[in-house]
Amino acid sequence: MLTKILLSEDQLPKQWYNIIPDMPGQMAPVIHPVTMQPVTPDDLLPLFPMGLIEQEVSQERWIDIPEEVREIYKLWRPSPMFRAHKLEKALGTPAKIYYKYEGVSPAGSHKPNTAVPQAYYNKIAGTKRIASETGAGQWGSSIAMACQLFGLKCTVYMVKVSYGQKPYRKSMMQLWGAEVFPSPSNRTSAGRAILAKDPDNQGSLGIAISEAVEDAATHEDTRYSLGSVLNHVCMHQTIIGLEAKEQLKIAGDYPDVVIGCHGGGSNFAGIAFPFVSDKANGKEVRLLAVEPASCPTLTKGIYAFDYGDTAKMAPISRMYTLGHDFMPPGIHAGGLRYHGASPLVSQLVHEGIVETRAVPQIACFEAAVLFARTESIIPAPESSHAIRGAIDEALLAKEEGKERVILFNLSGHGHVDMAAYDAYLNNELQDYEYPEDAIKESLSHLPKVG
C-alpha cells in the first residue's frame, strides 16, 4: 500500500512553468501608481532586478531554473507526496486523498521556492540588501534564509498582530541574519502616517508592503522582494505542481480536484497552475482555492484595478480585491490576510476556470486537528484551509458514494504556530464575521483607471 511517493534529485524539474502564454483572454496592464500609465521595465528597476522583471512579463512557457538555484533546491526538493490513508479511514470516504508536503523546507513552508531565486537574481544584479514584508512569518523566514545563503542583508516588516502571535518566526528570521520590525513601524513615512492616525494599529500585509516598498525605493543598494501575488512568484512555485504530476503518475492516479489555500495566490498557483493547461486540453479536473471567511478576497471581493498596498506606492493591478485600505481581522492564519490576489489567479477565477470557497477559522482548526491526529503532521494555520477543503470534498464523495481523487498542497508545518493551537484547545478562538460594511467603505476608495 503506497504511502509516500518520492522523486530522486535527478527528477528535480529543470524549468518553471509560466502560465502567461496559456491564460484565457487578454492580460490587463499593470498601472503606475503615480502616472496612471502602464508600467515599463524601467519603472520597476528601483524595486526589482532585471532578471525578475523579465520573468514577470515573459511570454515563454518554460523558464530555465539556474543551476545555482537547483543546487539549493536539492536541500529539500523534490518534496514528498503522501497518500492520506489514515485520514481517509477516519472520514470513511471512498475518495483517495493525496497531499504534497512543502513543510520539509528549512523554513518549514513552500515560500523558499521563490525566496531562493529572488535572492539569486538580486545577488547577480549587485543588490546588497533586500527589504520585504511578512504576515505569518513564513515568507519573512524564507527570504531571510535565502539572503543568508547569497550573502545579502535583509530587512523584514512583520505585520504587528503576527509579530506578537508568532515570536518564534521572528527568531528564525533573526537567526538567519535579518532585521525584523513590527509593522506599522516608525522607520518609514508610511508607517509613521498610519501610527499617527491609529497608534494601536495591528497592521496588515498591505501596510507592511508599503513600508518595504518605501524602504527599497529610498535606498540605492536595496531592492524589494515579495512572497506572493506577482507573476514571477507564482511561476517559481509551479515546481510544486510539476513534481506532483510526476508523483501521481507513479501512483497511477490523476486528480479530480486540486486544492490550495489562498491568500495572495502563491501556494495555490504552485499546486494548481500546472494543471490549468491539462484542463484547457480537455482533462476533467477542478481547481479549488480555499480562503478565510473573514478575509474573503476571491469570494466577496470585486474584480477591479487596485493598489497592491495601503499607502498606494505599489503598482496597480486588476485583481479581486477587498480594497487596499481594508483591515482584516486578526485571524491566526496571518499569511492569508491580504486584501488582494494574484492577477493571474484572479483572471482564472473571473473566467470560471478556478473555483473558490471561503471557510471560517474554527472549522479550519477542526480540520487541522483531525489531520494531525490521523496523519501526524501538525499543519500551519494557513494550510488548514486546504485541509478543510479536502475533507469537505472527501465527505461529499462519501455522501454521493463516488470514488474521487483529491490532491491538496500542505503548504507548511505549524511547529512555530503553537500559540494558535493553544488558543483552539482552550476554546479561545472565535470566528470573525465577514466585515461587509468595512469592505464597502474600503472599496469606495479604488483608483480610477482608464
Describe the protein.
- Helices cover 41% and strands 16% of the residues.
- The protein has 450 residues and is α/β, with parallel strands linked by helices.
- The protein has a domain at 67-108 and 234-443: Rossmann fold.
- The protein has a seven-stranded mixed sheet, with helices on both faces. A four-stranded parallel sheet has the order 8-7-6-9, with helices on both faces.
- Helix 13 (266-280) links the parallel strand 10 and strand 11 (286-292).
- The N and C termini lie far apart (58 Å).
- The model has no long low-confidence stretch (mean pLDDT 93).
Count every helix, treating DSSP H or I runs of 4 or more residues as helices: 19
Largest sheet: 7 strands, mixed
Mean pLDDT: 93
Report Rg.
Answer: 20 Å
User: In oligomeric terms, what are we looking at?
Assistant: single chain
The count of β-strands is: 15
Molecular shape: globular
- Strands ordered across the widest β-sheet: 1-4-5-15-10-11-14
Question: What are the SSEs and their pairings?
Answer:
Layout: E1 4-5, E2 15-17, H1 41-44, H2 50-57, E3 62-64, H3 67-73, E4 81-83, H4 85-91, E5 96-101, H5 112-124, E6 129-134, H6 138-150, E7 153-159, H7 160-165, H8 167-175, E8 179-183, H9 189-197, H10 205-217, E9 222-225, H11 231-237, H12 239-251, E10 257-261, H13 266-280, E11 286-292, H14 297-300, E12 302-307, E13 316-321, H15 343-350, E14 355-359, H16 361-375, H17 383-400, E15 405-410, H18 418-425, H19 436-443
Helix pairs in contact: 3-5, 4-16, 5-6, 6-8, 9-10, 11-13, 12-13, 16-17
